[in-house]
Write a structure and sequence with these properties.
Elements: H1 7-30, E1 92-96, H2 101-112, E2 116-121, H3 125-137, E3 142-146, H4 152-166, E4 171-174, H5 190-211, E5 220-224, H6 227-231, H7 237-256, E6 263-269, H8 283-287, H9 301-312, E7 324-327
Parallel strand pairs: 1-2, 1-4, 2-3, 4-5, 5-6, 6-7
């Protein structure tokens, strides 16, 4: 069980997860059009410390919010060739959406750099327990804080629980997100639009507002943006809107917090192999996920996480604030 002992927040989180699935179900049912797989037979670019999977993937689909343990192939988050060097020694970070995907990989690398981690997540406890075990395997402390980031009371509790259990808070990573694509603009219901806004924008706002009360000078906030917030996406109108808003929020908050000595930056990933995607797309689309990037594959979470270390550490980014760092697998040039 989660050790924060917040049954009301856990019940609220379960209700939000149900609401997400209710938004997802009719859109899945409507999407019956045929899907044409990519005809590009060129190999995916491999430039990492180890090879990474490329499409086609097995067809798969999940109900929201999705579990990393059910993804095939399993996302690669442990970065075995990444060597820590104390960049975050004795820091404490609160990471939302840390149960899986990018959040889990960030938690692991933060821990490898000497950071204790507060793992915030909705209700995917089995995934969150894996993240906690991975952090502890790096020799650092971790706590679980389940709840809905769109609730300002939960944001305050998550910050307080982090300080109470781990002693302080130096770094906030806003990473939790809701995404559900639609084929027709008219199918975005008010409930759907509201859920995306509340999770992706309100959630970042509430968490940041609670965190800045305790983050000391020299601390950092890192927001997860998206390539969709830079380029737009015809099937993710609401999600792209929130991600563009996150980029603007990042730059505005960075300016606002300069006098407090808190840096604020964002990472804007392209397609990343996480539970967010099979919990959004149907099987045929998942099979071709990331194939249209110049590298012809999605990123693995461990390929994105080092950017968060870079932006969190005062050793590597002390003169960087208000930046949005795209990690999108290349530009098409077209």
């Amino acid at each position: 069980m989660a050790e924060t002992q917040t049954p009301q927040f856990e019940r609220d989180a379960a209700e939000v997860a149900d609401a997400q699935r209710n938004i997802q179900a009719p859109l899945d049912a409507k999407e019956q059009r045929s899907f044409k797989p990519s005809e590009d037979d060129k190999p995916a670019m491999q430039a990492g410390a180890r090879p990474y999977p490329a499409p086609p993937f097995p067809e798969q689909h999940q109900v929201k919010p999705g579990l990393e343990s059910r993804l095939d192939p399993a996302p690669m988050y442990d970065a075995p060739f990444y060597k820590g060097s104390g960049k975050l020694k004795d820091k404490v970070a609160l990471i939302t959406g840390a149960d899986s995907g990018i959040g889990r990989a960030v938690a692991v690398l933060f821990a490898r750099e000497g950071c204790d981690v507060s793992i915030a997540y909705l209700d995917e406890e089995s995934d969150a327990l894996v993240t906690r075990a991975a952090v502890e395997a790096e020799g650092r402390r971790a706590i679980l804080v389940p709840g809905d980031v769109s609730d300002p009371a939960y944001a305050r509790l998550a910050v307080a629980a982090t300080v109470n259990a781990l002693g302080k808070l130096d770094i906030l990573v806003n990473n939790a997100a809701f995404q559900e694509h639609v084929m027709d603009f008219e199918d975005i219901t008010e409930e759907h639009f509201d859920r995306t806004m509340k999770t992706n924008l309100y959630g970042y706002f509430h968490m940041a507002q609670a965190a800045v009360k305790v983050i000391p000078p020299g601390g950092a906030i890192i927001n997860t943006g998206s390539v969709t917030g830079l380029l737009g996406n015809k099937d993710l109108l609401d999600y792209s809107t929130t991600k563009g808003g996150i980029h603007a929020f990042t730059r505005s908050l960075a300016t606002h917090l300069i006098d407090r000595g808190i840096r604020v930056n964002a990472v804007a990933p392209g397609p990343v192999w996480t539970p967010l995607n099979p919990a959004d797309k149907l099987g045929p689309q998942v099979a071709e996920f990331g194939a249209k990037t110049p590298m012809r594959r999605p990123a693995q979470p461990e390929e994105i996480a080092p950017a968060y270390v870079f932006l969190a550490s005062p050793q590597t980014s002390s003169y960087i604030t208000g930046e949005v760092l795209p990690i999108i697998g290349g530009y098409s040039g077209g």
